[in-house]
Amino acid sequence: MKHSGASTAQEVPLPVAETTTGPTTKFAAVPAYFRDVKFDPVPYWQKIGRWKDITEKQFLSYRWGTANDIQGKMKLHDFLKETLPEKLPQSDEYENIRTRDDFIKDVMDGIDRAPMSIRISPHIISSIDWANPLEDPLRRQFIPMMSTFQKDHPVLTLDPQHETEDSPVQGLVHRYNDKCLFLAASHCPLYCRFCTRSYAVGANTSTVTKSSLKPQLPRWEAMLQYIASNPVINDVVISGGDSYSLMPHHLRLLGDRLLAIPHIRRFRIATKGLCVSPSRTLDPEDDWTDELIALVKRGRECGKHIALHTHFNHPSEFSWVSREAAQKLFANGVIVRNQSVLLKGVNDSVETMGALIRELADNNIQPYYVYAGDLVRGVEDLRTPLSTILTLEEQLRGTIAGFMTPQFVVDLPGGGGKRLAASYKTYDRKTGKSTFVAPAIKGGETVYEYWDPLASLPAQ
Ligand SMILES: *Cc1c(COP(=O)(O)O)cnc(C)c1O
Ligand code: SF4
């Protein structure tokens, strides 16, 4: 007896697996990329006037990248002057800004009020649409503007997670029982306006003098001693600042010291580097990624889990360089996860957040967390109400594999740790106040509050 389904199946020949004989496959040191197919290597930096003659080899060099990043107000001023068109497209949100000079003045005034200093990498500079900088989601993250400044929420502080209170040793935050945060560096390859650690990260600005977290081996020694003498700690997050600013041999030293502590079972290395300076991963003259891959392999050999945690917020932060870099890490067995911050006008729509999650997943970067914006000074214009993160979670769950679906969380102000946004105990949409509990951190009694930005509340 035949039915049509079976007969069709017989007519379509199935691909036959070739029998492999001979020696075991050796893995190439340089992975085979899908060049010219998925990763069309367009020289996207050449649309920036000053980089029109920069070759791929130069752009991929980390040394070239750090020498050509835009650091400080005056360098940004000069860059904008030479790059922007004289007239800008109209924007309802910025109705008073029509020309290049209006834009530059607004940015310069914005920088004077901002808690973070300016540093932008060539990859990010090349990924911004300079024909329409007002609406650009990357411009919003890294370049402040005076005209969108909103008054801070009355409950807001510079160290919203009270990290300085949970620090038994300077530079180490021990809040959760079994894990701690190791603040190894105080610099980043670029500075985000919304940084939750604006109390310590980056150069001093006209409004904030930073407490020092400079990479210092003697300071690390005290932190490592604390970890070694506290067997409850199994898990360490190396952060800062950004682990990209560690010298490659310091990364190795720190990693090996942690691997040698018997009760440390896992650690993560946090860096925004893969997002903002992906070329470094491909630069044959730079050792950071090689040290990372070697460290991960040493960790595997002794049964310990090491992962890279990175920070993409928008799909336009990906270029072919980012995709090749992610593939190099994947092919070499490095687990990469991503933590995004939900930002108004950047990634707060279902469409954009959905596209970001898919881009991450396709690059084998696990979308781990999406955070509601922290209550940080000077960036109220970038925060969204709790209702936004609830909607994103509701709409996006089920659109992709569950293991590629991020947890949508609030990092509770006051040191309650991360909680699912949807686990709120109360949420008053009129006052914007939501409450949470965190039994594993401080027992079940302490109630933590999160507040929607004032501008998102109904008029009364
Ligand atoms: C986020 C964080 C961690 C790590 O938490 P996970 O939920 O495991 O990612 C550890 N310590 C502190 C202080 C943190 O803020
Ligand atoms: S990369 Fe991270 S630590 Fe550095 S400025 Fe941005 S948010 Fe802050």
UniProtKB/TrEMBL annotation:
Assigned keywords, A-Z: 4Fe-4S, Iron, Iron-sulfur, Metal-binding, Pyridoxal phosphate, S-adenosyl-L-methionine
GO molecular function, one term: metal ion binding
Highest taxon of source: Eukaryota
Cofactor(s) the record lists: pyridoxal 5'-phosphate
Region of interest (Disordered), residue spans: 1-21
Name this protein carries in UniProt: Kama family protein
InterPro entries in alphabetical order: Aldolase_TIM, Lys_aminomutase/Glu_NH3_mut, rSAM, rSAM_sf
NCBIfam families in UniProt: KamA family radical SAM protein
Compositionally biased intervals (Polar residues): 1-10
PANTHER family assigned: L-LYSINE 2,3-AMINOMUTASE AQ_1632-RELATED, LYSINE 2,3-AMINOMUTASE-RELATED
